[in-house]
C-alpha cells in the first residue's frame, strides 16, 4: 500500500475516514491525497475555490503538526462520483478511503448512495469507514467469500494489506439456515477448508483461519460475527451484475456498507486497475 485517495466534504464522517488514513500512514509509509469536490454552479466556483483551498491548506497544516504526516490536497469542480474515480486513476492510488454514515435520514441516504455508486463503478478497492468508528489498528481481517477467489491481484492486495497491519486473516463462507440443505453445507465446508489450505500454501507467512457463518440473513449474521469475533476489518469482493441479477440478487457488499460497524474493504473482482 503506497498511496490512497481520501475525498472530504469537511464533515465528521469524512474526517473519520481521513483519520484512518493518517493513523495508517504512521504505521507504514503511505502517501495520502485529499480531495474536495465542488458541485455548485460556475458562478460560485471562482469565489469558493480560494476559500476551499484555504480550508484544505489548514487541514494539511493541522495534520502535519498534530500527527507528523504530510498529505497532498486538491479542490476540484465536478460530479462527486466521477471525480473520485477519475482522480484516483490520475493519481495512480492503490485504494480509495471514504466515510459512510450507515442507515439513517436523508443526508445518510444521499451519502450512502454516493458510496454505493463509488463501490459499483470503481476499478480500485474502496475502504469504507463507519461514521462512528474509533480508530484501532486492524489485528483481525475477515474475508467473506462465496466464490473462493483465486485471482493473484485480488488476493495479493488483501494479504499485502494484512501484512502491512500485521493482521490475521479469517476466511468465512455464509450458510443460510433457511435455504442451505445438508449437502450444500457439506460442500461449503469442503470448499472453505480446501481454500484455507491453498491460501496457506500461497501465503506461508500469513496467519489464516477458516470458518462458516450461519444465519437467516447475511448482513445480520455477518454483523453479529464481526462483534462476536472482534473483527477489525471486513473484506468483500464486488461483482458486476445485470439489471435482472440486481433485482433478484442485490449486492451484499452494498447492504453491509449501510450497517457495518467496522471498516469495509470492497474489492472489484473484475480486477484491480494498475
TrEMBL record:
Domain UspA stretches: 1-130, 140-267
Similarity annotation: Belongs to the universal stress protein A family.
PANTHER family xrefs: STRESS RESPONSE PROTEIN NHAX (PTHR46268), UNIVERSAL STRESS PROTEIN UP12 (PTHR46268:SF6)
Protein name: UspA domain-containing protein
